[in-house]
């Protein structure tokens, strides 16, 4: 098979469609952080009723990611059974509808419920997106494909940080003072709906025999159970007066129960997914990736606003350095990993260096904050550099997961990786917000983030990379495609 022929290929079209899906999906989830920050600053009633609003705001993010986390494995598993394109389309339509409806909420429980439902819908996207890229992309371009597509995550986060101040201002003029935050959800949800229609039309595959009805029934059983469980824990913990970080920890019990269910009920069927030593290490390492991702995505506006004593708009503009770094880092990291593969170095060597450099830069950021640093420019630069390394290493991580997994179980493998990894996303906003309220400073949360990333660096050293795709054997793999 010739893979060096120039021109637009089918897999490029798939990359573009999935990139659009990532963009709207990431924007819908990341916008919660800036909106919560604006609500706190502008004393929106249902949020300001709490004694510790930052902790409550972090809990809202954690509840979203609880839903997002729990559907990772079922989403990948049903994608392997019913078609990855079909599950991707369902995910986008659910995200669009629940995001629009979020803008109509006027109570805390209603707002939380819609964010949970959004998380449940978006949670099935990742495993099926990563698997579809692996299926359609030439082997030696796998890391690049992963990087190009997930650039949509950076674009989505950038839009989620950049656009809310302007949409809120427009919303205040149309809906009344203090109501502008609703316009953000309306606008983002409508754009997501448009993308869902386009992706659904363009990703159709005539070879898929299963119906949307089968996929919806399979996913629906899990989603109803998870939705009731998450809100049930929230109600019980709220009545008992537990702190927000305690609620987040209880929510993680649901994750461990699902992992246990997978090992007990699917252990034989998915033995490669659940018992491979290197894959298990990669699963655990994913906790660090998603902790860092949603710590900065959720709280970077607040960190910069407080440290630099600047406005919400100026802080949001500075925080977009995080997203801009992803636009550069994701494809660059993927390209470098594929280059290293062709040179017989392997993908892992690039991965470990990027993790180390990102951890060191985050540590420097924490030192700057604890020493009273107030320059928005310096903070933006440090966030950009750390995020550049962070985003560059993610497509490499995904490509190694694909290399280690069995072709007919990649959806389940990516689903398990993100299920475990979402532990970080669930804990990060709540724990970080609680640390800030307890210490009246963001530096302890930044130091904790750096420590988690550096622990990830140590873990990856013990991963045994599958080297069948290096040197002369890469040409054999290409010829056998």
Write the layout of secondary structure elements.
Layout: H1 10-30, H2 32-41, H3 45-48, H4 53-70, H5 72-82, H6 84-102, H7 108-122, H8 125-136, H9 142-162, H10 164-175, H11 181-202, H12 212-240, H13 244-266, H14 271-275, H15 277-308, H16 312-342, H17 348-370, H18 376-404, H19 410-439, H20 443-460, H21 472-479
Helix pairs in contact: 1-6, 1-8, 1-9, 1-11, 2-4, 2-15, 4-7, 4-12, 4-13, 4-19, 5-6, 5-8, 5-12, 5-19, 6-7, 6-8, 6-11, 7-12, 8-19, 9-16, 9-18, 10-11, 12-13, 13-19, 15-16, 15-18, 15-19, 15-20, 16-17, 16-18, 17-18, 17-20, 19-20
Transmembrane segments: 53-71, 83-102, 148-168, 180-203, 215-236, 242-264, 280-300, 312-337, 349-370, 376-400, 412-430, 442-463
Protein name: MFS transporter
Domain Major facilitator superfamily (MFS) profile: 14-467
Strand content: under 5%
Element pattern in H and E: HHHHHHHHHHHHHHHHHHHHH
Number of strands: 0
Q: Whole-Å distance between the termini?
A: 7 Å
Domains (count): 1
* Largest beta-sheet characterization: none
* CATH top level class name: Mainly Alpha
Structural class: mainly alpha
C-alpha-based Rg, rounded: 21 Å
Q: What's the pLDDT, averaged over the residues? A: 82
Oligomer: single chain
CATH topology: Growth Hormone, Chain: A
What labels describe this entry?
481 residues; Growth Hormone, Chain: A; mainly alpha; MFS_dom
Q: Can you walk through the features of this model?
A:
- This protein has 481 residues and is an all-alpha fold.
- It has a single domain (10-479), classed as Growth Hormone, Chain: A.
- The protein is built from 21 helices and no strands.
- Helix 1 (10-30) packs antiparallel against helix 8, helix 5 (72-82) packs across helix 6 (84-102) and helix 10 (164-175) crosses helix 11 (181-202).
- The termini are close together.
- Mean pLDDT is 82; it is low at 468-481.
């Amino acid at each position: 098979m010739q893979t060096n022929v120039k021109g637009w290929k089918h897999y490029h079209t798939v990359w573009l469609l999935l990139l659009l899906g990532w963009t709207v999906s990431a924007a819908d989830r990341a916008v919660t952080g800036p909106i919560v920050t604006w609500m706190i600053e502008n004393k929106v009633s249902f949020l300001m009723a709490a004694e510790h609003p930052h902790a409550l705001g972090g809990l809202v993010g954690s509840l979203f990611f609880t839903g997002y986390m729990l559907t990772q494995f079922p989403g990948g598993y049903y994608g392997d059974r019913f078609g990855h394109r079909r599950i991707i389309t369902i995910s986008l339509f659910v995200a669009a509808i629940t995001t629009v409806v979020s803008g109509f909420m006027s109570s805390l429980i209603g707002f939380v419920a819609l964010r949970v439902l959004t998380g449940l819908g978006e949670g099935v996207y990742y495993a099926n997106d990563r698997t579809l890229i692996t299926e359609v992309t030439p082997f030696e371009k796998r890391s690049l494909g992963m990087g190009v597509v997930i650039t949509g995550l950076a674009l989505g986060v950038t839009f989620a940080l950049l656009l809310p101040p302007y949409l809120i201002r427009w919303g205040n003029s149309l809906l009344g003072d203090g109501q502008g935050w609703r316009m953000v959800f309306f606008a983002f949800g409508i754009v997501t709906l448009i993308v869902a229609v386009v992706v659904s039309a363009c990703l159709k595959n005539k070879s898929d025999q299963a119906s949307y009805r089968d996929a919806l029934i399979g996913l629906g059983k899990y989603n109803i159970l998870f939705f009731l469980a998450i809100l049930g824990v929230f109600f019980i913990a709220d009545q008992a007066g537990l702190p927000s970080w305690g609620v987040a920890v209880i929510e993680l019990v649901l994750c461990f129960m699902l992992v246990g269910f997978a090992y007990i009920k699917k252990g034989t069927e998915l033995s490669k997914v659940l018992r491979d030593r290197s894959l298990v290490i990669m699963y655990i390492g994913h906790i660090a990736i998603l902790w860092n991702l949603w710590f900065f995505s959720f709280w970077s506006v607040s960190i910069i606003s407080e440290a630099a004593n600047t406005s919400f708009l100026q802080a949001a503009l500075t925080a977009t350095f995080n997203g801009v770094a992803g636009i550069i880092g994701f494809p660059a990291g993927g390209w470098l990993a594929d280059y290293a593969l062709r040179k017989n170095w392997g993908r892992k060597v690039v991965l470990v260096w990027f993790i180390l450099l990102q951890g060191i830069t985050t540590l420097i950021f924490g030192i700057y904050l604890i020493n009273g640093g107030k320059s928005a420019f310096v903070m933006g630069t440090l966030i950009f550099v750390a995020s550049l390394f962070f985003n560059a290493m993610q497509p490499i991580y995904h490509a190694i997961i694909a290399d280690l997994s069995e072709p007919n179980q990649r959806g389940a493998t990516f689903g398990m990786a993100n299920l475990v990894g979402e532990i970080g996303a669930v804990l990060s906003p709540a724990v970080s917000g609680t640390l800030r309220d307890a210490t009246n400073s963001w530096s302890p949360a930044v130091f904790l983030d750096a420590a988690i990333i550096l622990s990830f660096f140590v873990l990856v050293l013990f991963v045994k990379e599958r080297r069948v795709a290096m040197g002369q054997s890469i040409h054999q793999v290409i010829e056998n495609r």
